[in-house]
Amino acid sequence: MPQILEHPAAVEKDFLPLNGTDYVEFYVGNARQAAHYYRSAFGFSLAAYRGPETGTRDRASYVVTQGKIRFVLTTPLDPEHPIADHILLHGDGVHDIALWVDDAESAWRETTRRGARSMREPETLRDEHGEARIASIAAYGETIHSFVERRNYSGPFLPGFTAAVGGDAVARPVGLKHIDHIVGNVGWGQMDHWVEFYRDVMGFKMFKHFDDKDISTEYSALMSKVMSNGNERVKFPINEPASGKRKSQIEEYLEFYHGPGVQHIAMATDDIIATVSALRLQGVDFLRVPSTYYDDLTARTGAIDEPLAELRELGILVDRDDEGYMLQIFTRPVADRPTLFYEVIQRKGSRSFGKGNFKALFEAIEREQARRGNL
Ligand code: FE2
Questions:
Q1: Closest by alpha carbon to 239, among 190, 283, 311, 279?
Q2: Cα–Cα distance for residue pair 40/105, rounded to 1 Å
């Protein structure tokens, strides 16, 4: 008997199969010091480096890792370098959300023929550890997606990088495992354009979960839709500002970043209490919600495994949906401009994004905006 496939979507071929996020590259004013911050505060380990000492004359890059998360911190060594323009305009920020593929040439071809703007044609990079293929396309603002194929490469990162020697005495790992999602802020009325970009050009789908309706409340003044690739390893919520009683937090971001860009990166842990306790001791600054948030918390979420007193002490938020619950907390912006920040998330069944916390959270963000004079 021939097997009958129940759902026609099951036979649709994914034209852009992704293994996950490969790395996130930041352009920063001082990569050496940024690398120290990610190591000593967020617990990353230095894995690889390239710069003048390794034969790269125009920039220095530090690769830091924790669990499956890999960040590349890059700075230019000359004011005429195009990276210097990026930093002048945006401040420190994400330039590249690189995606791990088995075939970079195909990823580039399939996306560019569906309308993606090429930023780098497929190129083979080689060194003594083998060869890697890389190609890039443009996404929102000046953000790009590189496609990285590393099947035939065994080096510490990519050709041109050398391994960090002698371990990392500075790193203090905190149990961050992998990237859960990366959120992009785009301009007024641009959300659907970028939702269509991820759907039509990259084959993503609207992520179906229990809070996937548009977010538009008097508190949030933003709208958001979540796009996901086929195997759900890559999830990109896209936000646009909405008009509300006060200036949208997205508008503040766009003003200071001077355009669309990455708003936050959510990193997953299996033990949020241990992770956030360690991050706090290491100097990471988190947003606080009022203590009253916890007064009726379990009335909203039902029974949870974690001690309420510890959640209250650390400021960790909880939300439940039909599939389970999740715990989350947000840092303050990590640079002086109110742009990029981080989320730490622990999922216990729930696949959603904490809609039940938006009110408390957005009020906390508004208090911060007011302190900056931007509300
Ligand atoms: Fe998030």
A1: 190
A2: 37
pTM for the structure as a whole: 0.94
Looking at residue 128, its pLDDT comes to 96
Residue 371 Cα to ligand 1 middle (Å): 23
- Are 276 and 316 contacting, i.e. CB atoms less than 8 angstroms apart? yes
3-state percent helix, strand, coil for the chain, nearest multiple of 5: 25, 35, 40
pLDDT tens per residue across span 155-177: 999 999 999 876 677 888 999 99
Q: How far is the CA of 264 from the centre of ligand 1 (A)?
A: 7
Domains of the chain, with CATH numbers?
20-163 (3.10.180.10), 176-372 (3.10.180.10)
Instruction: Find the 342 Cα to ligand 1 centroid distance in Å.
Output: 8
Report CA torsion sign: 342, 344, 349, 350. negative
11: pLDDT strictly greater than 80: no
Both tokens assigned to 124: 């083979």
Q: 199 C-alpha vs ligand 1 centroid, how far in Å?
A: 20
pLDDT in tens, 173-230: 999 999 999 999 999 999 999 999 999 999 999 987 655 455 555 666 788 899 999 9
Structure confidence by residue, pLDDT tens digits, 70-129: 999 999 999 999 999 999 999 999 999 999 999 999 999 999 999 999 999 999 999 999
Q: Are 187 and 254 in contact (CB under 8 A)?
A: yes
- Cα angle 11, 7, 99 (rounded to 5 degrees) comes to 50
